[in-house]
Amino acid sequence: MKDLYLKLPPFAPDYGGACEVMYELGGLVLIHDASGCTVNYVSFDEPRWHHSPGLVYSSGLTEIDAVMGNDDALIDKALKAAAILHPAFIAYVGSSVPMIVGTDFTGIARETEMRSGIPSFGFDANGIGSYVKGASDALLALTQRFCGKKTESRGTLVLGLLPLDDAGLDASRRILSLFPDRRASLCLDCTIEDLKDAQNAEKTVVVSSAGLKTAKMLEEKYGIPYETGLPLEKIDSDHGSLLVIGEDIRSYCLAEALGGDALDLFLPEGISRYHTADEDEIAAVISNYDNVIADPCFREMVSGNFIPMPTVSVSGGIFKETVPATDTKAIAALLR
Amino acid sequence: MIADQTNGLPRYCHPYHGGWDVARIALDIPESRILFVCPVSCARIICLNAVKYGYKNRINVLALTEDDIVSGNYEEKTIEAACYVLDHLKKRPKALILYVSCIDAMLGNDHSFQTEEIMAHYPDVNCFVLKMCPITRYSGDLPLVALQHDMYAPLPAEKVPHTRTAAFIGSNIAYEESNELVRLLEDNGFRALHIQASDSYADYLAVRESSLNLCLMPFGKSAAAMLKERYDTPFLPYFAKYDYASIRDTLAKVCAALAIPLPDIDAMEQETTRILRETAAYISDTELVIDGIATLFPDALRTTLQECGFRVRRVYSDSVERREPDRDSGDVTVAKTRSFGETEPVIAIGMVSASFEGAVNAIDIFYDNGWWGHDGLRRLARAIRNAYDVPKSGAALREEKRR
Fold first, then answer.
1. What is the pLDDT of residues B111-132, one digit of tens each?
2. β-bridge pairing B359-363 and A28-31
3. Mutate to test the interface with A, among B74, B102, B107, B139 (most CBs of A within 10 A)
C-alpha cells in the first residue's frame, strides 16, 4: 500500500537536512516545533552533535501559540538567545505543525533581521520532504546571501557533503580526502568564512544532490564550472546484476564504478535509473537484481546477495560501517 | 505537574532518552502493535529506536502527505492501512494502537469513527488511539502522564473481582525479583503484576483485578486515578525516592493497605548504608555528577549519597524540584558551556550529565532504570563501582550500542 512503511524506517526529513547544512556555520538555528522534531534531529540525523558545538534548538512551540499564530513569541526567543550567543545569522526551520497553520517563515525572518540587524533566514520545511531538499534549499539561500565579489579563482569547492550521506563522520571525511586540492567543503569541516569565500573557487564538485542547485547558481553568477560525482576507482569484475540504493549522486557513482544501476530514495528525478521512496516500488525493483548495496534496514527486503552500507539518512548512525563506500575494490570482492 | 521552564529561551534538546520513547512504553501492553499515522519525520525516531532495540517488527508507519492532510483523506486511509497491516500478519495482535502526532491536535479528528470501523472488521482486536503530541504539554497532562492514562483507558469497562494482585503503574521497567516491594508482596501471597514483564494480553486485562495499584513514578498517577474510579482499585502514589524515610513510609503504607506485616526495615537500612559507605570508600575522592534524566529525584539521591560519604560535584536537573539555588539547569545556558570530549575524572550518573560534564566514567541509567528503594540503591552502588573499575565514557557507551 502506498505511503505505508512495513519494513523500512522513515528517512531523514527536510528540517534535518537544513540543520545539517548550518551546523558548523555559527548560526542560531531554531526548529519551530514542540521539541520532538529537534530531538529527532539531534538523536539520529546529526553525528556531529556529540563532538562539536552547534547552535540548533527547538522553539518550544505550544498548542496555544500555534493556534493563535503567536509568531512574536518565536522571534522574542530567537532574539533573547541571540543576545547571549552572538550568532553569525539566525535561521528558522519549519516542521509539520507550522505547515498546518501556515507559518510565514520569510516574514518572520525579515522581522527578525529588522529588529536585530542579524542576517536571518526562514525555511518552510514540513517534516514531509526529504533531507536533500531541506539541505539544498538552505545551502542555496545561505550561499546566495553571503557570497560577495569574486577576487580570485583557486582550488576546488566541494559542495553538498553532509554526514547524512554516510555511515558516520569518519566515512564522510574519507570522501573529503578524495579532493586533496579542495579549498573548502560545504558543509562538513567548514566555517562561515568558507561559505562567504565560495565564489573564489576555481571549480566546484557536487558530491550529493544537496549541492547541485548551489553549484548551478555559482556557475551562473560567478562563472565557476561544476562537475558532479566522486572520483571512485572503476572496477571491471564479473558479477550478476547490481543495484545501489541511497542518495542520487552517491548511489549513481558507486553503481557506475562497479557496473550496476542506482535507486535514489530522496528526489523525484536525477541521474539514477530509479527514483522512489515507496516500499512496494522499491521491493519490485530489488527483486530484479542479484546484488543489492543498501543500508542494513533494507536487508529484509533482499533475497539476493546483500551488501550492507549504512547511511545516517536511513538508519541514523545505529549501524557500524562494514566496508568503506570509497573502496570499490573491496566492495567488488563481495559481489556475486 | 512538572513545569517546563525555559525562561523565554529556545529549548535545548539532548538526544539521550535511554532508548525509551512513547512507542516503546506503549508496547509494554503485551501482544500489541503500533500503526503510526503521521508526517513521515515524526515516526523516524520511533522506528530507529525500534530497529536499535529490536522491536521494529511491532511498528508500522502510515506516512501522511500534504494532500492527505489538506483533503482529509487520511481518515479513510488510516482504516485502509490498519486493515492492510492486520491482513498481512501471520499472527494478529490483541491490540492495535493508532499512534498520532502533534498535527492531530491541530486537525480535530474523530478517531472513534476509525477505531470502531477497524474493530468491526476485526472483533478480536482492541483498536485504540494514543498520542505523541508534545505540543499539548501545556494543554493538560504532560505527554508521558497522558500516555500512561491512555494506555489503561482501553481496558474493558466491566469490573472483575479483586484478587491478591498488586499492579505497578507508571514505570517503564518491571521491578526485579530482588526488590523489597516485590519480595514483600510475593512473600505474603500477592502477585506483583507488572505488564512490562509479560508477553500475555491477559495480564494487561488482569490489571482490572488488582487490589492495590502501586504508582511509584509520577507518570502513572493519572492512570491510577482513572483505574480507581473505574474499578474501585485504591492506589498509593508514592513516587520513587532514594531517601530512607520515604522508602520506609512507602513500605509501611503498602503493608497497611494490604494488611500484611511490616518487614525488618532497620536491617534493610543498615545493609544499604554499609554497601553505600563501602562503595564511597572504594571510589575515594572521585566525584559524582547526577542528572535529572537518570532519576526524577536527583536531590533525594544526592542527599542519600552524600550522607553515606560520596562527593557529589553537581546535579544537572531538569525543571523538577527547582527549589535549591545551587543547581545548573538543563537549559540553553548549560548547553553553551557543555564540555566536548571526555576528560573530567568524575562518575556521571546519567548520560546527560556525562555529556555536559565531559565525564570519563558514565553510568547509563534512565528514570531510575526500574530501580527503587534499598534494592535500587544497592544496584546503583554496584553500577558506581563498575564505572570506577571499568571507565567508559558516554561516547564509549553509545558506541557499544551501535550494531
1. 999 999 999 999 999 999 999 9
2. unpaired
3. B102
**Which one of A35, A52, A127 has the shortest CB-CB distance to B40?**
A127
**Residue range B225-247, pLDDT digits in tens:** 999 999 999 999 888 788 999 99
Burial class (CB in 10 A: 0-12, 13-18, 19+), B39: buried
How many residues would you count in chain B? 403
CA of A325: how far to CAs of A53, A101, A271, in Å? 27, 42, 19
A107: helix, strand or coil: helix
Other Cβ atoms less than 10 A from the Cβ of B161: the count is: 7
* CB atoms B106 and A100 under 8 Å: yes
Cβ neighbours of residue A188 closer than 8 Å, sequence gap 6 or more: A24, A161, A162, A163, A172, A173, A176
CA–CA dist A279, A263 (Å, integer): 12
**pLDDT surpassing 90 at residue A217:** yes
Residues paired with residue A56 on neighbouring β-strands, in sequence order: A29
- List the grid coordinates of A160: 553538498
pLDDT of residue B237: 85
Angle B379-B382-B386 from CA coordinates, rounded to 5°: 140
For the record, the C-alpha cell of A75 comes out as 522571534
Q: Please, what's the b/e burial string for A230-249 (b: 16 or more CB within 10 A of its CB; e: otherwise)?
A: bebeebeeebeebbbbbbbb
Q: How far apart are CA B228 and CA B211, in angstroms?
A: 10
Residue B321 to residue B298: CA distance in whole angstroms: 9
pTM: 0.93
A 10 A CB-CB count for B138 gives 15
Contact A120, A110 (CB under 8 A): yes
Q: Comparing A263-272, B206-215, B343-352, which segment has the lowest mean pLDDT?
A: B343-352
Q: Is A100 on the interface with B (CB under 8 A)?
A: yes
Kindly indicate the confidence band of residue B6, based on its pLDDT and cuts at 50, 70 and 90.
low
Confidence tier at B70 by pLDDT (50, 70, 90): confident
